[in-house]
Amino acid sequence: MINDDGLGRCPWAGTDPLMVAYHDQEWGTPCHDDQQLFERLILEGFQAGLSWAVILRKREAFRRAFAGFDPATVAAFGPVDTDRLLAGAGIVRNRLKIAAAVRNAGAFLATQRKWGTFDRYVWSFVGGAPLVRAAPPLWQEIPTHTPESDALSRDLKRRGFAFVGTTICYAFMQSVGMVDDHVEGCFRAAPPA
Fold it and tell me: Of residues 12, 26, 27, 52, which has the active-site annotation?
């Protein structure tokens, strides 16, 4: 899809400036910052059943509600915090997803302790470098999960994480650049090998 600026982009970015900026600056860009990895994992869990545009528009409210996605702070959330989050209009108010975010913060910290960084752990599922395939001509040809996301999902669940099914894990992997799924004609697609 060619936008007014003359650049081809993945069709899902559309013309919404927020989605275009996310596509151009974040999605598919390798991320190695633990706090940003935690944020993206939590937001992907909240996105389940919703559109990414909804989550993106609420992102700043999520950051305020979840203490800037500081995993140690979120792991210490209790019933008062859950009530506060359920009453806040700025985020997705789903009790199960809120409980999963708190649970995941604790599991995230435990994984950090074992691996040194969450970054080292999560990137091990792709051998430490982004998986780059030939850019598919159509968005519909991109898988919703892969053997790598299946393995990541299984291992995260084993470590006590919730809302980390294989489809959520694959969306997370796309978001943080573990895979490059920009379509053919997108200015961000990896050049053919």
Answer: 52
Confidence of residue 61 (pLDDT cuts 50, 70, 90): very high
- Number of domains the chain contains: 1
Q: Is 170 a known active-site residue?
A: no
What are the tens digits of pLDDT across the range 75-105? 999 999 999 999 988 999 999 999 999 999 9
In a domain, 4, yes or no: no
Catalytic residue among 27, 44, 121, 123: 44
Residue 52 catalytic?
yes
DSSP code at position 10:
-
Which among 142, 157, 158, 152 has a CA at the least distance from the CA of 173?
Answer: 152
* Annotation marks residue 60 as catalytic: no
What is the average pLDDT score of the chain?
Answer: 94
Which CATH number is 126's domain given? Answer: 1.10.340.30
